[in-house]
Amino acid sequence: MVEKQKFCVQELIPMGCTDTRVLILYPYELSNEPILKDNILKMTKVIREYIKESEMYRSV
């Protein structure tokens, strides 16, 4: 019997901060891994910076 893989979906940047929802998908068994939690925080910062720069570029 094949077991179905379970995944977690987490919202990185809420809709209120931008007009686009940014989600991350990862295997459920990694949900309590400290390195994953640390990297999600880092990704959020980088994505926010990218969105700000992109908005500045579009407004010029």
UniProtKB/TrEMBL annotation:
This is Uncharacterized protein. It comes from Agathobacter rectalis.
